[in-house]
Each structure stands twice: as C-alpha cells, then as structure tokens.
Amino acid sequence: MNRPVSPLLAAASLTEFWSPRVIAELDDSYVKVARLKGTLAWHNHQDEDELFLVLKGSLKIEFEDGHIDLQAGDLHVIPKGVQHNPIAADECLVMLIERKSTLHTGDIRTNKTRDISEQLAEFNSGGPQSSESQK
Ligand code: NI
After folding, report:
1. Cα(59) to centroid of ligand 1, in Å?
2. What is the pLDDT at residue 14?
3. Which pairing describes strands 29-39 and 66-71: parallel, antiparallel, or unpaired?
C-alpha cells in the first residue's frame, strides 16, 4: 500500500493490551505495534533478537541481572536467548521489529500469548478519523 502508516496512531487504536499487530513487513521481519499495561511474562527468544521502540509512555524491561527503563523515543534490542519480562506501570505504546519466526512469548505460552495469525489480523490501524474513537 502506497500510503504512510503511523505506528503511534496504529498502536493507540488497539483495544486489547499485550496483543501485537503487524503494521508492515520487510524481508524476513515484521514491524508490529502493541499497547501495553501491566506485565507479560518472563520468556526468551532462542533464535531471534527483538527490537522495542517506545512510542508513548514508558516501559521497564526486566532481565535476570537487572532492568532497563525506556521512555518515549527510546529504543532497545533484546539479544536472542536473553530472558526478559516487560512491565508497563502505566499504559505504554510500543513498536517492535522482529523476525517473522519470533513467537510472542518465546519459549512459553500464557493466556496472553498471541499467535502470528492473530497478530496479522486486520485491525483499525489508526486512520486520522479513527484513532480517538476507541479509547
Ligand atoms: Ni520478547
């Protein structure tokens, strides 16, 4: 599609927390957005790095040996195999870039886990007229 995509508006249009949606793809990777609040689960991605870019709010990512605090505009790459647990004390919007093979919660499954088919589902990706209506 030859039109711009706003990751911020797309993320803001999501109605469910911790349910990433694909907004673009490049080569063997997907660009996703997600709306986060609370925590996901400790997990790792054995074979894939995972890029987080915070679009709005702030996100804490716990590691076994510490944590990182990301503010809007901050980017962090979690290397493959590293145990991590994202925590959003308040609502946070993020963009993710990860290989198409990356599983949502890596080596584990929880009731929050979303399969790639769900992540690829059509959604209201934040046109100017729609971004405020679902809050
Ligand atoms: Ni992860």
Report:
1. 13
2. 95
3. unpaired
Within 10 Å of residue 121's Cβ, how many Cβ atoms? Answer: 11
**Residue predicted with more confidence, 93 or 119:** 93
Q: What is the distance in A from the centroid of ligand 1 to the CA of 135?
A: 26
Distance 129 CA to ligand 1 centre (A): 32
CA distances from 43 to 85, 105, 109 (A): 7, 6, 9
Structural domain spans, the chain: 7-124
pLDDT in tens, 75-98: 999 999 999 999 999 999 999 999
Neighbours of 131 (CB within 10 A): 18
Q: How many helices (H) and strands (E) does the chain have?
A: 2, 7
Q: Domain 7-124 adopts which CATH fold?
A: Jelly Rolls (2.60.120)
Tokens 């590293």 belong to residue: 82
Q: How far apart are CA 111 and CA 26, in angstroms?
A: 29
Report the pLDDT value the prediction gives residue 97, as an integer from 0 to 100.
98
